[in-house]
């Protein structure tokens, strides 16, 4: 969908939601649920935790819908809430839990599926070794496909900071993954 059409659609749904239209809020959930969930999963490494954070993200967003400023994209505003919820959740549950091993089986055969699953587990484990700032930029850039400008807006940091965090995060991930392979 065209960015301007998306922004107009979101703006209309938010306005209706601010007026108490539950169907409009439901539509926003339908549109962004998967995106918020995937971000939370990559930030936390657990499907149960990601589901909790996704729910708390929408609850927080809808409770604070009056504070949304239409000059910002709803997606960026919601994502900022989601990243903050994931970071807060992680801080509250510090101590680390096991990775969720229920990755979906996709592929032509069991050997390829096993290798793919192992690779995903290695990537997720390496991702969990990053600090919160680095993990956030990796998830937003590579899993949510946000632009540098969008990441800057979501995290409330300059684009230069986004780029430097991304550089450091990639370097750290590469080291962690090469360490596991070697």
From TrEMBL:
Highest taxon of source: Bacteria
Leader peptide range in chain numbering: none
GO terms (BP aspect): DNA-templated transcription initiation
Transcription regulation is among the record's keywords: yes
UniProt xrefs under SUPFAM superfamilies: Sigma2 domain of RNA polymerase sigma factors (SSF88946), Sigma3 and sigma4 domains of RNA polymerase sigma factors (SSF88659)
Gene3D superfamilies: 1.10.1740.10, Winged helix-like DNA-binding domain superfamily/Winged helix DNA-binding domain
Domain RNA polymerase sigma-70 region, chain residue ranges per copy: 28-94
GO molecular function: DNA binding; sigma factor activity
Domain RNA polymerase sigma factor 70 region 4 type: 121-173
Keywords noted in UniProt: Sigma factor, Transcription, Transcription regulation
Any one Pfam family match given in the protein's UniProt record, by short name: Sigma70_r4_2
Keyword Cell division applies: no
PANTHER family given in the database record: RNA POLYMERASE ECF-TYPE SIGMA FACTO, RNA POLYMERASE SIGMA FACTOR
Family listed: Belongs to the sigma-70 factor family. ECF subfamily.
Name listed for the protein in its UniProt record: Sigma-70 family RNA polymerase sigma factor
Organism: Parahaliea mediterranea
């Amino acid at each position: 969908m065209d960015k301007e059409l998306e922004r107009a659609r979101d703006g209309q749904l938010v306005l209706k939601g601010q007026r108490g239209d539950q169907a409009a809020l439901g539509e926003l959930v339908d549109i962004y649920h998967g995106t918020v969930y995937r971000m939370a999963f990559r930030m936390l490494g657990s499907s149960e935790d990601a589901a909790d954070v996704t729910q708390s993200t929408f609850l927080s967003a809808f409770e604070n819908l009056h504070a949304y400023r239409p000059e910002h994209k709803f997606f960026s505003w919601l994502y900022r809430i989601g990243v903050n919820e994931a970071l807060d959740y992680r801080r509250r549950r510090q101590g680390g839990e096991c990775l969720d091993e229920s990755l979906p089986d996709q592929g032509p055969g069991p050997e390829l599926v096993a290798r793919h699953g192992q690779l995903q587990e290695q990537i997720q484990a390496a991702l969990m070794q990053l600090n919160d700032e680095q993990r956030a930029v990796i998830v937003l850039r590579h899993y949510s496909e946000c632009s540098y400008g969008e990441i800057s807006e979501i995290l409330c940091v300059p684009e230069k900071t986004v780029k430097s965090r991304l550089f450091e995060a990639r370097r750290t991930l590469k080291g962690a993954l090469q360490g596991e392979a070697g």
